[in-house]
């Protein structure tokens, strides 16, 4: 199985790109979904977060209060690093197990993992190819404000907490620019899929 990493900064349109890849025939893992699963009640990730950040990050029903935890880590780089150190090994282990299952089912398929921080953590090196999704900075700010119902200042703070887009783009085997409309993004994504499919055929 050809293993492909897909990444990009917050609110650049990764979800739409992964939907296009899924429609084209790729098997896709959304790291956000995995991240939610590893912090469900009863999972070790939740216990470790509560130990590190205190029970104030838990809701009365025992679920993780993601908004409260997010507010803490976006404002404090050291605590963000602490959270990532807890979650990333659990998320990566879950992703790799899923990829192994898919490879047994479809040895010549394409497996894509969508994760925002794979360059920062170095986990992108597990993949055969890397796609970086990006867009114009002003478009990114506007999308984040609209998506999360936050102010421009809050959006800029969140964006500033991540690796700059240009820096991520330097790692890419393939770039997909989502600044324009859905049709143009879909066209670029299908072209990347065509190239990946060609590589898969050569393996």
Describe this structure in words.
The chain has 203 residues and is an alpha/beta fold. The protein has helices at 14-24, 31-37, 44-53, 66-74, 77-105, 118-121, 137-148, 152-160, 165-169, 182-202, and strands at residues 2-7, 27-30, 110-114, 129-134, 174-177. α1 (14-24) packs across α10 (182-202), α3 (44-53) packs antiparallel against α5 (77-105) and α7 (137-148) packs across α8. The longest helix has 29 residues, at 77-105.
Taken from the alpha-carbon principal axes, the silhouette is globular
Share in β-strands: 5-15%
Specify the oligomeric state.
single chain
Using the CA coordinates, give the radius of gyration: 17 Å
Structural class: alpha/beta
Q: How many helical stretches?
A: 10
- Supply the CATH superfamily name: P-loop containing nucleotide triphosphate hydrolases
SSE string, helices as H and strands as E: EHEHHHHEHEHHHEH
Please summarize the sheet with the most strands. Answer: 5 strands, parallel
Mean pLDDT: 94
**CATH T-level topology:** Rossmann fold
